[in-house]
Design goal:
It contains 25 helices and 11 strands. It has 739 residues and is an alpha+beta fold. It has 3 domains: 462 residues, Multidrug efflux transporter AcrB transmembrane fold; 94 residues, Alpha-Beta Plaits (2-Layer Sandwich), CATH 3.30.70; 112 residues, Alpha-Beta Plaits (2-Layer Sandwich). Strands 6, 7, 8, 9 and 10 form a 5-stranded antiparallel beta sheet that branches. A 4-stranded antiparallel beta sheet has the order 2-3-1-4. Helix 13 crosses helix 22, helix 13 crosses helix 23 and helix 18 packs parallel to helix 21. The longest helix has 35 residues. The chain is elongated and about 90 Å long.
Length: 739
């Protein structure tokens, strides 16, 4: 591996014009494809194998033309204080608004609140439902403007008017904090390298990689049904790993220059050594992201594969474009004097003086491994305590900012019709096998009406053939509550008895039921996913480190960091701690996909630092140093760069906390805090402490396994053979000259 990458690095350095041209061409091609691609709609949300999805598919086939996936809007009206909606002027304003709403070119249906009894018991709140033939993301601006204009006209009559639903759905914005995160990364790079050119290379290559990845996703979004969240997550992860991977290559290149090597040779060795770590670190991230497909939720699979593709591009750029740009930069990436010594490598590092911070910290941990280990484990354990109170759900209008019209409409409906009105359950009765469908519909209606937690049950609405009906059930609790979830399970539990009596199948769907099934499916898949991802990465790390205990320690450390990060997410987004600082206006259940997504992404990123840091220790150990000294050497050369990489990744992820979408905000915070825990507590403290306690046993590998495993040579041992060969050739040349 090291020898191959060494040759690749030298080739990219030598043929830098060709390498740079290829990547510029790919960026241009992806950009043209993104610019000419049709606008993508919202990603379809399906959960194969669940009851809610089966019911949804049944509605599609039995109620054709209903546009079940079309956008919806609820225009909510509230009368002025002391008045009723039935008052002459208020009623006229509502009827006018309904008439205007029905003239839209994409509107399929509008309900008049006075005709369908959509007025609250106290007579102060009413709503009109609007259904469109296309999804919210595909809705034309003219239709959205008409909806807003109708609401504004009604406001002029003195009514309070708000619009809920997904008809006004907009692409999420990340805000200025994303730019601030990149700016912080730039500052960290400048401080780390002491050179603007050296600092600019990782940023430039990361932006090129993200540009290619996100543009490709945009170009394929319509064809592959990719939502806007997919490109945002790919950008988030691609930026972080792209900067980090280039950072390690550039740092090693500078160290090789400081050793007195020629520029091409330094580039080759940087890619051969640090590049090997980049390849295996990237592989762990890709495995973790692609592994999300085992959950069998198409949306999650697409997000994982798209992000994995962006990571793969980052790896290829680090191995080819970075050495090519180093060729253009010349020796300007290498500062002289004191700044060179800060990197802990090269001749400057051999000068007598005070050891760097990494050396001093590692020496302290080696002397006090048990105390450091206990303190780190207790600290992470305390941070993980809130995770025991984890409640899962999916965000709805109730989780949006109170400044949005969707949230205000949600609150008005809750006030007028009860908290469960925002999460109605759709019960589908399939009576095709029944001899008396009408009797079956009536039986289902009556049994649900008698259940605890039900506010109202609508009459059955059969299809044209009369073999299938829809029944709307309004719970007495809000959509995200445990009580509503229990009601869904109660209705489904009664389905067996109803089928025995009427030969009719009862299925529960609707957004609330879909969210419940989504959360359950993710929970069921978490353990198999964890076993698959950790298992594959464990095998990969055995090959990299040629050890059993080092990969085991890496996996256990990851579990500590991810549990602590989940605890922090619960404390902020569910309990409300520091919610104002994070811009969280509404606390509530944690997004259902958060645990499994964090497991995947954080595991991959955690292994980045494990590979980068421990390979330097392994390299020192293989070259003859004692275990304790190898730990110190690894920190001497790698701690500063790993620290910079972690700070950069935290800054990039933190930039997405400013997103207007709660899911992106939560993921940005979760990944940022997870990287902090993993890099600075697990990898910087627990890893050296455990390795110090294990001693030589840390690098133990059964002899039979050592013979079976391929030798990938991450430490660059094969490159020493190149040096030896050149030295022999040099000695031979000197002998010939002497003759």
């Amino acid at each position: 591996m090291a020898t191959f990458l060494y040759k690749l690095g030298r080739l990219a350095f030598r043929r830098r014009h060709f390498a740079a041209l290829i990547w510029v061409a790919l960026l241009t091609l992806a950009g043209v494809g993104a610019a000419s691609a049709p606008v993508a709609g919202s990603s379809s949300f399906s959960i194969p194998g669940t009851e809610a999805q089966k019911a949804f598919d049944l509605l599609e086939s039995r109620f054709p033309g209903t546009s079940a996936d079309g956008a919806t809007a609820r225009v909510v009206f509230k009368a002025p204080a002391g008045e009723k909606m039935a008052d002459k002027d208020n009623k006229a304003a509502v009827e006018k608004a309904v008439k205007v709403l029905g003239t839209g070119s994409e509107v399929t249906d509008v309900t008049d609140p006075f005709k369908v009894h959509a007025v609250s018991k106290d007579g102060t709140i009413a709503y009109a439902s609007v259904r469109y033939e296309v999804s919210g993301m595909e809705l034309k601006d003219a239709s959205k403007d008409a909806l807003k204009a109708a609401a504004e006209d009604a406001r002029h009559s003195g009514l309070t008017v708000e619009v809920g639903g997904d008809a006004l759905q907009a692409t999420p914005e990340t805000g200025s904090s994303e730019v601030i995160g990149i700016a912080i990364a730039a500052v960290v790079l400048v401080i780390t390298f002491g050179s603007l050119i050296a600092a600019g290379l990782p940023l430039l290559t990361a932006l090129i990689g993200v540009g290619i990845g996100v543009s490709t996703i945009t170009a394929l979004a319509s064809a592959l049904d990719l939502g806007s969240t997919t490109s945002t997550l790919a950008m988030m992860i691609g930026l972080a790993v792209g900067i980090d991977y280039a950072l390690f290559i550039v740092s090693r290149y500078r160290a090789e220059l400081a050793e007195g090597r020629e520029r091409e040779e330094a580039a080759g060795r940087a890619v051969g050594t640090a590049g090997s770590a980049v390849v295996f670190a990237g592989l762990t991230v890709v495995i973790a992201l692609v592994g999300l497909s085992v959950v069998n939720i198409p949306m999650l699979t697409k997000m994982g594969v798209a992000a994995a593709g962006t990571v793969a591009i980052a790896v290829l750029i680090a191995l080819t474009l970075v050495p090519a740009l180093l060729g253009y930069a010349g020796r300007r990436v290498q500062p002289a004097g004191r700044k060179s010594r800060l990197l802990g490598g090269g001749r400057a590092a051999k000068k007598p003086g005070r050891p760097n911070m990494g050396t001093r910290w590692a020496s302290f941990v080696v002397r006090r491994p048990l105390a450091v280990l206990l303190l780190g484990v207790i600290g992470l354990g305390a941070a993980a305590v809130p995770a025991a109170s984890l409640q899962l759900g999916l965000p709805d209008d109730g989780s949006q900012s109170v400044s949005t019209t969707q949230r205000r409409a949600y609150d008005l409906l809750s006030d007028g019709f009860g908290p469960g009105f925002n999460g109605p359950l759709m019960v589908v009765v399939d009576a095709k096998a029944s001899d008396a469908p009408k009797t079956a519909f009536s039986t289902v209606h009556d049994r649900i009406a008698d259940m605890k937690g039900v506010v109202s049950v609508s009459p059955a609405s059969p299809n044209k053939s009369g073999d299938t009906a829809m029944i709307t059930v309004i719970p007495d609790s809000k959509p995200s509550s445990v009580t509503t979830e229990d009601l869904v399970h109660t209705i489904r539990g009664a389905g067996a008895g109803i089928k025995a009596d009427t030969d009719a199948n009862v299925l529960v769907t609707g957004s609330t039921a879909m969210n419940i099934d989504f959360s359950q499916k993710l929970n069921d898949a978490l353990i198999p996913y964890l076993a698959l991802v950790v298992g594959l990465a464990f095998l990969l790390l055995i090959v990299v480190f040629r050890s059993i205990l080092v990969p085991l320690k890496a996996a256990l450390g990851f579990l500590l960091s991810v549990m602590a990060a989940l605890g922090a997410v619960v404390a902020v987004f569910q309990w409300g701690w520091l919610s104002g600082l994070m811009g969280v206006e509404e606390t509530g259940p944690i997004m259902s996909m958060m645990p499994i997504f964090m497991v995947g992404v954080v595991f991959g990123l955690a292994m980045d630092y494990e590979v980068f840091l421990v390979t330097r220790m392994r390299e020192a150990f293989v070259h003859g140093e004692k275990p304790g000294q190898a730990i110190v050497t690894g920190f001497k050369h790698g701690a500063r760069v790993v620290t910079a990489a972690a700070v950069i990744m935290i800054a990039v992820f933190s930039g997405f906390i400013g997103s207007s979408e709660s899911m992106i905000k939560m993921i940005g915070f979760g990944l940022a805090i997870a990287v902090f825990f993993d890099a600075f507590i697990v990898r910087m403290a627990l890893v050296p402490a455990v390795l110090a306690l294990l001693g030589k046993r840390a690098w133990w590998l059964p002899k039979w396994l050592d013979r079976v495993l391929p030798n990938v040579d991450v430490e660059g041992e094969g490159l020493r053979g190149i040096d030896d060969g050149r030295q022999r050739d040099g000695n031979q040349d000197r002998k010939l000259v002497g003759v």
